[in-house]
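During the second year of the project, the team shifted from modelling isolated chains to modelling whole assemblies. The rationale, set out in the original proposal, was that interfaces cannot be judged from single-chain predictions alone. As a representative example for this report, we include one of the complexes processed in the last quarter. Its constituent sequences, exactly as entered into the pipeline, are reproduced here:
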Amino acid sequence: MFSKHWMLIAPARCGAEMMELLWLIPAFPLAGFLALAVTGARMPKRLAAIIGTGSVGASAVVALFIGMHFISSPPQGHLSSQTLWTWIEIGEFRPSITFYLDPLSLVMTFVVTFVGFLIHLYSTEFMAEEEGYSRFFAYMNLFVCSMLILVLADNLLLLYLGWEGVGLCSYLLIGFWYKDHANGRAAMKAFIVTRVGDTSMAIGFILLYFNLGTLNIQEIMQRASQAWPVGSTFAVAAAALLLGGALGKSAQLPLQTWLPDAMAGPTPVSALIHAATMVTAGVYLIARTNVLFTLAPVVQEAVAVIGALTLLIAGFSALTQHDIKRVLAYSTISQIGYMFLALGVGAWSAALFHFMTHAFFKALLFLGAGAVILALDYEHNMFRMGGLRKELPLTFWTFLIGSASLSALPLVTAGFYSKDLILWYSLSSEDGSPWFWAAGMAGALLTSIYTFRMVFLIFFGAAKGRVSRKPGMTMKFPLLILAVLSIIGGFVELPRIPIFSEFVKTALPSAKTLHEGLLGEGMQQVIASGVSLIGVSIAYLLFLRAPLNVERFTSHPAGKALHRFWFSGWGFDWLYNKVFVGPFIWIARTNKDDFIDLIYGGMAWYGRFFHVALSLTQSGKVRWYAMGITIGAVITIGITVFL
Amino acid sequence: MTLNDLAPLIPLMVIAVSSVIIMLGIAFYRSRAFSGLLTLAGIAVAFITLFGVQGTRQVTSLLILDDYALFYIGLILAASFVVALLSSDYLEGRRENIEEFYILLLLSTLGSSVLAASTHFVSFFIGLEILSVSLYALIAYTRNELNIEAGVKYLVLAAASSAFLLFGIALLYGETGTMEFSRMSSGISAQGINKGMLLTGFALVLTGVGFKLAVAPFHMWTPDVYEGAPAPVTAFVATVSKGGVFALLLRYFIQVDMHAYPSLFGAVAFIAVASMFAGNLLALLQKNIKRILAYSSIAHLGYLLVAFLAGGVMRVTAVTFYLVAYFITTLGAFGVVTMLSGKERDADAVEDYQGLFRHRPWLALIFSAMLFSLAGIPLTAGFIGKFYIVAAGAGSALWLLVIMLVINSAIGLYYYLRIIVVLYAQPGHSEVSAVSSLPLTGSLVLVLLTVLLLWLGVYPEPLIEMIHRMTMRF
Amino acid sequence: MLAEGIFIYLAAAITILSVLVITRKNPVHSVITMLVLFFHIAALYVTLNAEFLAAVQVIVYAGAILVLFLFVILLLNLKEEAVARRYVGPWPLGLMAAVGLFLAIIVSLDSFVAGPKGAFTTEVIKAETNTKALGKILFTEYLYPFEVVSIVLLVAIIGAIVLAKKRLRS
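Output from the structure prediction step:
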């Protein structure tokens, strides 16, 4: 008995049994959620922390074993799936609860469980004094479970379940401190804006189902490439509708406005949901359905353009923020812009690679920011920080590593390798163009400027705030691990030694490079390195050496206007308020008693009328009831005999 | 008829014998626990012996023990088991002698089981009478004013409806010369099917059965009886008695091939639509939980008839799954009412439930789950059931009925949600919340039902498989 | 011709008597009317060659049950109830329902064709005598129902005791 049990765990010896454990990965967090949700506030904090963190840890361990097994002895065709059961079965409509594992979902699963585990661990200390401790962990576990369902889903319905699940958790966690109305409003905004995308995606799913007659994603891809020629209307429509969903979830232009406001949630939430995992669901969706996008070159082009524009716009906005978390939020939008750019030029694996490294260093930066915020009694404004280098040495060093990785400082950081790959493909790929490359380079410059602006403002200069508490072990440990990953995470894909893209190539086709001659890969790396170093220097000059220059610029009317424009995220919120929200509210208000309302009102009125009328028949008198039976018999005979 | 014929009847005989044992037991030693345990044991043994019946066994021309009958008898037995568990604590302190309750419960279960296995009008009628006569006494059992009123009403009206039924049977017998379901269709085809007399016979049988099923326009007794009967008995009336009758109706109309009579089809469709609307509209602003559940059961039987009208294999699947879901949900909902009822009166006013979540979060959650299932919200058995009904209806292109069903589901949502809102509102002033502690058995039963409800909602496959296997041989 | 005449008389009498049973104010009158009614039904059985049923009808219903009714009514002394105003508000509606049912059945009646006859035709029964024929079928084909009917009686007895007696402690 014992030996058999051991067989299941030992990765070296077991065969296909390992893959049978796939269902455990989402099941652990689900169990954690149920346990926490059922007991509620009665559960002691310590136990809640153990359950919440342990469940994600357990699924990380399972993911690790499965991953090792997957790499050491890859299953047939580099994919395996596990069907748990069929939910409903009506003819062709046969949604099953099936998990599908291929390199793409394996990478996603790995990141979600590991980064998720580290963030949970960090939260046990970060949230220690909060009300609703177990509620927090319940939501977080539910989130991890939904995210895992999303990435492991084998069919559209299950994927949609995960997709809506993460959306729900995002809503709940942004509004975690619900007593402050602003947080509730931010949660609402995030929910509604992403819903615009979700609706588009749902329509896309329905379109795929009705035209291709299956819910299974792999079958859809197969049938689509057979049924639809490149550029056909259906392919374009389906890809565009899915893109809509991806834009909403991944906060890309024009649906990016919700993410900065989503920072209202607790910092670990921002790290997990709004940086490392959920916001990259759009990237996952496009990568998963890459066949569709290849069939619709127009849409794929649009993906690249949107990515390029988003990364620039968000970069400029990040430059002007005071709030440390908003800088990181804009930075996230910008980095996902890079991923979209990669997807748009057909560099699928580069996008996934950047997703992975970004998850490491952005989670690290958020967690570091959280440590700083907690140390300064919930101070978010960077201009009231400074000189924390001495007080919080570990936080400083890890934050610095994260920043270096984000700015793609050459050779030693993970971000360098992933971003470099994207820049290279944006130029050299079949679908690439010098414009994309230029946008990417400009974005890289912006990235290193705003990143080091942040570093210099927080950790250098004169100390402005008083450090009230220092991070303990459970907060330091995740920072350290993530810092290590932010460095070594890039070494899995070196130029000429593409381990990562080799690994994922069964799931994601490799990019087609064309313009090999225009600019060598080595040359482009040198330029990219130069750009990021220049960015750091500019940041040093402007924000540490001579901050007066910046103040002089921003006090100038033109500078002031520009600052305000960038600060407000290019006025998108203002625009949407004017164009959509205002008119919508106006229409809703003036149109309160319109025709449609009359229908509903009429239904209610008729309902009540017939209720009253029918109630009169319930007189409680036996003779009356007997007569009812007789009349019923007469009617029944009437219909059967005379009809 | 040989001894061999008796073997498949063992499940039915076990129930009958255990009721006699209890009766004799009472003569010597009166004990609630003793009678209760004997009842549970009797039902359990009967349930186990169901598995001993091999293959399809026709016992004389009256009864058939095929997979279909066994499945429904199993369902009926399970429901009686739950009712027996719920009623033991409920009856305590409500009247002096509660041992006879179990005898009546067992015998009415027997009646209902006989219905599920009937293939002949004689066994049908006798089963119905055993069921009804025990119900008269069960409904009036605790002998307060409401009870007795409900019991007498049920007695008078059931007798009247039986008269219709008998008249119908007589007409059909006169026309076809047989009372066997299977031979009836050949008798009919010899005569030609467009016989006014024959159709009148069908219509009158439908009237009698319709009364038992409480479908409109034969539904008026339902709320009064549901309100007046003790809560566990109401659960029994709503599940066991209707389940047996519905099983019979389905078998009967499949065997005489109802689809050959368009006008009969029309009559059932009329009854279905009328039931859906009458049930849902009457429940709309109702303030008494037991009455709401009564109206809701009228509507649910209407939904069931939609599936009943659909043809093909889907029909039996949809009807059976829906009935199972309906059983679980109804038992659960009345279980909650039973648990909360004080000795003075049942907890049947909606205000009694105001803020239940604050005092008894578990009970409120269970009740919500049951209501969600009644409303057909996903992840509950009720949703899957409704889904199958809609699929069956759409599969047979009964668009009008399906549309009616959807409209009615929307209306139904209103009053289910109304109760749920009340459950989570600020607590009001009600003596019901003061019920000191909940009985353990009842709580366990409710938890079990809820688990089953959700289990079937996410993992219906085993049950569907089972129903498929059963219909294969049907 | 004579048989038809008798049938019409009996049918009319049964109908009128039934109406009288439910409209008499005095319960004793109702019961007496019912007694007469039962005799007419028994007569109807005789015309249908069902002498055994006719005898049972007279012995059980008229002889036993109605006498029991009379006893109960006399013992209860129902003076007050006898004069209380009855609920007869919507009787026109009731009449319409009854007439409707009657018409529906009358209209469909002309299509009646008797089904195939079973083994026990009138001739067979006459040859074998009523009681023997009934016994034969009751103890062969319908043995189960015959046994099971005892359960109906059992239920009725238990039900009556349970409802009537306050304390059942022995």
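Residues 273-474 of chain B form one domain. The first strand of chain B starts at residue 57 and ends at 59.
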